[in-house]
Design a protein that fits this description.
By secondary structure, this protein is of the alpha/beta class. The chain folds into two domains: 178 residues, 2-enoyl-CoA Hydratase, Chain A, domain 1 (Alpha-Beta Complex), CATH 3.90.226; 261 residues, 2-enoyl-CoA Hydratase, Chain A, domain 1. It has 22 helices and 24 strands. Strands 11, 14, 16, 17, 18, 20, 21 and 22 form an eight-stranded mixed β-sheet that branches. It has a six-stranded parallel β-sheet with strand order 9-6-5-4-1-10. The radius of gyration is 27 Å and the shape is globular. The protein starts with a helix and ends with a strand.
């Protein structure tokens, strides 16, 4: 009894101490975040905007300092995200502010979609019109980051660094063999020869149609990249392709100089002196003042208040009916309805970056946008993806703007019903029951479709496809036959989509905003972003829940975590889907 009381008391004391420690860590994190949030940046003369090209690029910044501070407090790796919206705004601030004399692009490993990278690149080209300099340095440049920094006045590389230039490749992970081992058969009904989203579930390799479309849009993307690098560096396209065929990153670093891809090989310690030489009349003995991206974001807003607003509604991620972290239909519809009712909002830009998802949810969002469009100008700005369901919710707009390397189209639809009879047999499960009518147990996951059930599903999907095509035809002012000719689930780049009439203009978010302003005939305005960003408490609770769960799963599964994600995502597919080929990894 004495030992029992001893161990019980020790356990209670341990729990109390652990709880106190957790509270102290939490208060420390809250204090650190709150402290950082209060700071306002003041610029000094001769300041340089330092844009650190590291982490993961996302369309909209999360303002989530908590996750980073929490990771550091727990001794874990800090997963950095950087918002495209912040970068574009900060480049514009740097161009306009006389205290900023140039931009330093530091590093070359930013992960992001090629269309988003191009949007930053275009903003940097515009920045150079001010006469201010851009200097880039990295230990190693990834291919898409080299494409980004190729606009710089000077490109610097570590003497033993690497510059990746090899062309593009694309891969898809196929799950059929894994599902076969589990005894799961994915029963597919679809419309669209090129509708390849279901291929990973039923094939072990690309279909001929999918291989064709991927080959076409990959070559289109590569052409854009290589042509623009050629223009910036004054190197012929043929020469750049020849360099790419040499797998340049494994060649001697000096070849980057020889091929005029970079301007100088230096260690990072020499970068400051090179930047100083680019600043007119810089005091000899003074140190440089670098302003980080987060500090630029905290510059005081000097814009005058204006009652006229242009709303930018962000629609990012998979489209779902009522749950998820992407575009959740009921939440998005409410946001659209609220914007439509706001008399201060004179025009709307709908920023779409989505591979699609639920066809039902896409239709609800389309309907809400149609009601909004009846009241206000509506312009769509496409990000890295606006395909399938992403195109469904875009086609209603007055004008559609996309980057040349945006992935769009994929006008097609499919349904997936798993048959787990094989799995049941493996684990010894059997089923029996009664029914009152012929179709009472229709579309069961415990057996194959009957011919009649397959016909029912196919007709259901066909009706969904016909509605999708009609939405596109009405929105684009084309005939049904014209849309069907370019539909069939085929994926297009923004450049090709412009040619065939699926988009109206090549450009980025700012171009879309300018179109909205012109259509609303506004002389002055403010930008208002939607949905509202989460407050600190909401972000804190989400981070405490999801962040810890994700980290534990990654630690347990290691490299297999991505496979786990894919199997989990398959299990969440519900109803008919308007989704493009997913998990296509472009490298």
């Amino acid at each position: 009894m004495k030992q029992f009381l001893k161990f019980t008391l020790a356990t209670i004391v341990g729990i109390i101490l652990a709880s106190l420690l957790g509270v102290l860590i939490l208060f420390g994190i809250v204090g650190a975040v709150a402290g950082s949030a209060e700071k306002v940046t003041t610029l000094k003369p001769n300041s340089v905007y330092e844009l650190d090209l590291a982490g993961t690029l996302i369309d909209r910044s999360k303002d989530d300092e908590f996750s980073a501070v929490f990771a550091e407090a727990m001794g874990q790796h800090k997963e950095t995200t950087i918002g495209l919206d912040d970068i574009l705004a900060n480049i514009a601030k740097a161009k306009a502010d006389e205290n900023i004399v140039g931009i330093y692009l530091k590093g070359g490993s930013l992960e992001g979609g090629i269309a988003s990278i191009k949007e930053i690149r275009n903003a940097l080209i515009d920045f150079k019109k001010s006469g201010k300099f851009i200097i880039a340095y990295a230990d190693n440049y990834s291919q898409r980051n080299y494409y980004l920094v190729s606009v710089a006045n000077k490109i610097l590389l570590n003497p033993i660094g690497m510059l990746e230039l090899k062309g593009l490749s694309a891969q898809t992970m196929f799950l059929k063999n894994t599902l076969d081992k589990l005894g799961i058969e994915m029963q597919i009904v679809k419309v669209g020869t090129f509708k390849s989203a279901v291929e990973p579930l039923v094939n072990t390799k690309m279909s001929d149609a999918n291989r064709l479309q991927v080959n076409v849009f990959m070559n289109s993307i590569w052409k854009t990249l290589i042509t623009e690098v050629s223009d910036s560096r004054k190197i012929p396209v043929d020469s750049l392709n020849k360099f790419a065929d040499e797998m340049l990153m494994f060649q001697a670093t000096e070849k980057s100089i020889q091929y005029k891809l970079v301007d100088k090989l230096v260690y990072i310690q020499s970068v400051d002196s090179i930047i100083k030489k680019s600043i007119k009349k810089f005091p000899k003995d003074e140190d440089l003042t670098f302003v980080s991206n987060s500090e630029m974001t905290k510059l005081p807003d000097t814009k005058k208040y204006d009652k006229n607003k242009v709303a930018v509604i962000y629609a990012i991620g998979d489209i779902t009916d009522s749950e998820g972290e992407g575009i959740v239909a009921d939440k998005m519809v409410k946001t659209i309805d609220d914007v439509a009712k706001d008399s201060a909002v004179k025009a709307v830009v709908f920023r779409v970056s989505s591979p699609g998802g639920s066809a039902y949810a896409s239709e609800q969002i389309w309907h809400a946008l149609s009601l909004l469009k009846a009241k206000k100008p509506l312009i769509v700005s496409m990000g890295d993806y606006a395909a399938s369901g992403g195109y469904y919710i875009s086609c209603i707009a007055d004008k559609v703007v996309a980057q040349p390397n945006t992935i769009t189209g994929s006008i097609g639809i499919f349904g997936v019903i798993p048959n787990i009879a094989g799995l049941n047999e493996k684990i010894g499960l059997t089923y029996d029951g009664v029914k009152t009518n012929k179709m009472s147990d229709a579309i069961s996951i415990n057996r194959k479709f009957t011919p009649e059930e397959r016909d029912l599903m196919q007709n259901f999907v066909n009706r969904g496809y016909e509605l999708f095509v009609k939405r596109c035809a009405d929105g684009r002012k084309m005939t049904i036959d014209q849309i069907k000719f370019i539909a069939e689930g085929r994926v297009w780049t923004g450049e090709d989509a412009l040619r065939i009439g699926l988009v109206d203009k090549l450009g980025g978010l700012n171009d879309a905003i300018n179109l909205a302003v012109a259509k609303a005939k506004l002389k002055t305005y403010n930008i208002k972003e939607y949905p509202e960003k989460e407050d600190f408490t909401a972000k804190l609770m989400k981070s405490l829940g999801k962040d810890i769960e994700t980290r534990v799963m990654k630690a347990q599964l290691g490299e297999q975590y991505s496979l786990f994600q894919k199997v989990r995502d398959v299990s969440k597919i519900n109803g008919i889907q308007a989704r493009m080929s997913y998990d296509l990894i472009i490298q």
